[in-house]
UniProtKB/TrEMBL annotation:
One of its GO terms (molecular function) is nucleoside triphosphate diphosphatase activity. Residues 176-203 form a coiled coil. It comes from Marivivens donghaensis. This is Nucleoside triphosphate pyrophosphohydrolase. Its EC number is 3.6.1.9. Residues 40-113, 179-240 form the NTP pyrophosphohydrolase MazG-like domain. SUPFAM superfamilies: all-alpha NTP pyrophosphatases. The gene is mazG. Gene3D superfamilies: MazG-like. Keywords: Coiled coil, Hydrolase.
Length: 278
């Protein structure tokens, strides 16, 4: 594309995805592009991709629909960025990305795009989806039960996915009572490690405990990553109330103590419960 056509496309607000792809190409131009964009690699951009995905989730959690459009755009830009770098390396381009996901969606939904009927429940479709994915893994020579569970997932999310995969072949506790018993066992081992073992062994026992907690969340039908995000938000909200209560008596947290802050914490907790009951 010549410079004049490129400029016209870049400044055409109605040009859609082609405009974004061209903007990305221009940003990566080694002679006239943005120096920061030019020097990026898959490895350096990857953390931003993860961050943008979380910002989409944050906007949804807060029901900030006015922000969601922009956050989804930021996430889309990450896909275009990776595709442009892949194109430069001769691996694939953005159209290949679009074709791959389109082909996958058609393949995984024969009841919508094929000749099969659509007499399936949502649970039935999940089971069928897993069967299709298992066939895809087999085609990639991913023959072990846990093959294909992405290493780069957030640790809690990956723990649940690993456990779900193992559960499909019968490696699972039948009831939450047994999972809770295992949590008690792992907690005791962590205390013992704290008192007698090395920091590395303490870390290992902490990991074991978190893994079982993730398993309990799965058994209870709770998504642990989301549950922890909500717990984080609740902690921020209540601690902010502690600061507000201290400010009302002319203090900062640094000028307070644990006993006083704990008293204000209990007050914030009671206010939260009262608000839920109204």
């Amino acid at each position: 594309m010549d410079d004049q056509a490129s400029d016209k496309l870049v400044h055409d607000s109605s040009a859609g995805i082609d405009r974004l792809v061209e903007i990305m190409r221009r940003l990566r131009d080694k002679e006239n592009g943005c120096p920061w964009d030019v020097e990026q690699t898959f490895t350096t951009i990857y953390p931003y991709t993860i961050e943008e995905a979380y910002e989409v989730g944050d906007a949804i959690e807060r029901e900030a629909w006015g922000e969601l459009r922009g956050e989804l755009g930021d996430l889309l830009f990450q896909s275009v960025f990776h595709a442009q770098m892949a194109d430069e390396a001769g691996l694939f381009d953005f159209q290949d990305v679009v074709q791959a996901i389109s082909d996958k969606m058609v393949s995984r939904h024969p009841h919508v795009f094929g000749s099969e009927g659509n007499d399936f429940s949502a649970d039935d479709q999940v089971d069928r989806w897993e069967e299709v994915k298992a066939a895809e893994r087999a085609a990639k020579a991913e023959t072990r039960v846990l093959d294909g569970v992405a290493v780069g997932l957030p640790a809690l999310l990956r723990a649940v996915k690993l456990q779900k995969r193992a559960a499909r072949v019968g490696f699972d506790w039948p009831s939450t009572d047994q999972v809770i018993d295992k949590i008690r066992e792992e907690s005791e081992e962590l205390v013992e490690a704290r008192d007698k073992l090395t920091q590395e062994e303490v870390e290992e026992e902490m990991g074991d405990l978190l893994f079982v907690v993730a398993n309990l969340a799965r058994h209870l039908g709770v998504e642990p990553e989301g549950a922890l995000r909500k717990a984080n938000a609740k902690f921020v909200r209540r601690f902010n109330k502690i600061e507000d209560s201290l400010a009302a008596i002319g203090k900062t947290p640094e000028q307070s103590n644990l006993e006083e802050m704990d008293m204000f914490w209990d007050k914030a907790k009671a206010e939260d419960k009262a608000a839920k009951n109204t």
